[in-house]
Input
Amino acid sequence: MTQPTLHPQHTALSLAASGVPVLPLRRGKVPFGNCPACADNACGGRPNMRTPGPCRCPGVCHAWAAATTNPAVIVSPAWASAWQRAVCVGYHPGGAHLTVVDLDDAEAIAWARDALPATQTVPTTRGQHWIYRGAMASRNAVRPGVDIKSTMAYARYLGPGTGTMADLPDTVRTLAAKEPSPVRPATVPVPAGAGGGECPHRTPAYLERGIAMAEQRITEASSAVHATVYRTFLAVLSRHGRCGCLTDAHVARLFTAAQAKGESPRHCADAWTNARTTLGL
Output
């Protein structure tokens, strides 16, 4: 199944008619940023709207919370500029009472085939979306290469896929049932490993090059941004996390790169915490 070739706005109208809330996605396959009136939380909402606020902006600048099934909004002048620049259509799975299990690679797909009931399947750039009937809390990196997108999240529309949609299984709900990580500020202290690991950095340039490469990897991600951010954090921590060389400034640079791709501070903090837990830091 190939990606739809209709103009994104036409695809959006078709999806909206079937009850799926839609929004345009820009280059990088991420939502449009806040408009000037909503910048810096001036509207009372929250940047990228990971949680809804009182904003009533008519534009499309609040990520998943801007998704709509109203055709008048989709064709409105306030959305016109976004559609002209859109590269694809996003949708809010939870708003359509759906859950997307985003499988980012062959290993994740193999796990799903063993662990999950068959359902509607849509090919992605590097993996598959398994779509189930039923909504739940979204959560990233529930397993290596596996994200869950439902409420308060968006997914790319890549076509109808194949197979018959199944009801959301308890197995998927259990994956996201872990206690949520505490909300952390955009800069997270990185303590030295308990064993006081030996520092492998002969010069500051070594660490600087590693951080710059990590920033570039996140910035250049064209899909699976959540997974790319997590894996990049994991790589940085596996190399630099035990010797105490990482500073708040280094972490802030990584978080800034991730947020520029549409990640929220909380998702950055969760990914960082999950990476540290995986490595035993």
